[in-house]
Amino acid sequence: MKKSLLQKYYVGVDVGGTKIQASLVTEVGSVLANHRCETPRGVSGHNGSVERTLSAIEESIRVLLCEQNCMLDDIAGIGIAVPGVVQQESGLVVVTPNMNLSGVELGRIMKDRFGVPVSIGNDCNLGTLGECWLGSGRNTSSCVGIFVGTGIGAGIVFDNRVFNGAGQAAGEIGHIISQIPCDHWRREMISTKRKREAKSSKSKELDISRCGCGNYGCFETFASRSAMERFIREAVEGGAKSVITELNGGTLNLIKSGAIAKALKANDKVVTSIVRYAAQVIGYACLTVRHLIDPEVIVLGGGVLEACQKFMMPVIDAVVANDQLPVLSSNRRILISSLGDNAVVLGAVALVRSRNGFNPLRKTHRIIPKYPQLHFMAEKVIHIADEPYAKDFFILSDGTIRPRLRLPKKNIHGFRLKDIQMLVEGGVDLIIFGSSEAGEITLSGKCRDYLFRRGIDYRILPLDEAVHFYNTVAVRRSAVWHFAVDGN
């Protein structure tokens, strides 16, 4: 890894139940490298060794640094995210329901082992913080992230800081009560026969909506991947016909988000009905968030949303658009996460940077990458540092220049969604499309929707105007330069 002698680096670590991801990150938020390893087996309950888990976290960081030829002296801080309740100030992990770190002073231990500042936070809180720094929640001071996966987690950022709550447990949106099992007064007012029927029905309902936390009627019992899995299994076992078993490898024990997405694409009635219901529940959860704290942006993420967003987002939008509560005119938005797996590690870095006195969410502390200066010297030629470019190329969010080696077969002036996703990586406010001839570049509806759902602006300009705009605009940006030469 080529390192600047003046630049300090950060390490962000996402500790999950199945994997640990350690990432080397610059102060501007560029992810230079990732190292992933499996979380040690048997870390839950009393079967796992705490030291095994701590050693795995330590080893993942040391391997990352070794692979990148990076010394501890180059590291300004380490941020670590864990799935549980965390006492941020002290670095104490209060409880991790699915891991064995409960009661462990993780912050102190890792600081002792590495000798640099270490900050600890909840993974969903830090995922939201990452999205507020460089993702779909950027440039806002209030944002709520909702992450739909096996369960449903959330994070709240207000005034450019994570809101933890009095008990360090704010944002547990998966456990807000969406179904209230308290209708005794109704049962007392109906006949004895109807009471028996209602009691039987209610008992069944309670069995269905019992949450892993012990409560009844939690949000995640209706809209998480686990909830969808349970509803699908019940429907198929009840005789409903569905292709989901075949798409999921012949089993319904663990239904993956990808299989659900494929079933939606196949117009499977069972899966379509259940996912539509889950999306409606998520839509009403978004309304609840708006009515309670009214953030500028709600960012939706997690494996289920990422896999099924094309189907789910219009349903969520319809529920939210039908809100009857009058409000002032505003630019409130519901967006899709744009950082993916890097959201949590970037949030962990943002946390430790804030603890070091440089909150990257504040305008005075924001730093954008150093971008190359472009010169439009002649028709269809761009010069960068005296090197001419006359074939299609990209400039990524960190200023890296990369040739564009592949054009779409059907329309050489169009763009593959993979190109757009690459331009978005690292966090951008703007994508600039420069073309040698006005009107050549075309963006498909899929590409436009992808950018719209993440609140990313774009400009399509002739080469000379695009070069001037790229050199002068003061935002995080990426660009593609299209020269429209056949056989390029």
Description:
By secondary structure, the chain is of the alpha/beta class. The protein has three domains: 9-135 and 341-365, Nucleotidyltransferase, domain 5 (2-Layer Sandwich); 208-336, Nucleotidyltransferase, domain 5 (2-Layer Sandwich); 374-482, MTH938-like (Hypothetical Protein Mth938, Chain: A, 3-Layer(aba) Sandwich), CATH 3.40.1230.10. It is 36% helix and 21% strand. Strands 3-2-1-4-7 form a five-stranded mixed sheet, sandwiched between helices. The chain has a five-stranded mixed sheet with strand order 10-9-8-11-12. Strands 17-16-20-18-19 form a five-stranded mixed sheet, with helices on one face. Strand 1 and strand 2 (19-26) form a beta hairpin. The two termini are 31 Å apart. Mean pLDDT is 86; it is low at 43-47 and 202-208.
| Low-confidence spans | 43-47, 202-208
- The order of strands across the largest sheet is 3-2-1-4-7
Mean pLDDT: 86
Q: Which geometry do the CA atoms define? A: globular
Query: How many strand units?
Result: 20
How many strands, what sense, and barrel or not for the largest sheet?
A: 5 strands, mixed
Which percent band covers the strand fraction? 15-25%
Count structural domains.
3
SS-derived structural category: alpha/beta
Query: How many distinct helices?
Result: 15
The CATH H-level superfamily of the largest domain is ATPase, nucleotide binding domain
How far apart, in Å, are the first and last alpha carbons?
Answer: 31 Å
CATH topology of the largest domain: Nucleotidyltransferase, domain 5
